[in-house]
Amino acid sequence: MALIITDECINCDVCEPECPNEAISQGEEIYVIDPRKCTECVGHFETPQCVEVCPVDCIHPNPDYAETREQLHQKYLALTAQKGSG
Question: Name one GO cellular component term (predicted).
Answer without folding.
Answer: cytoplasm
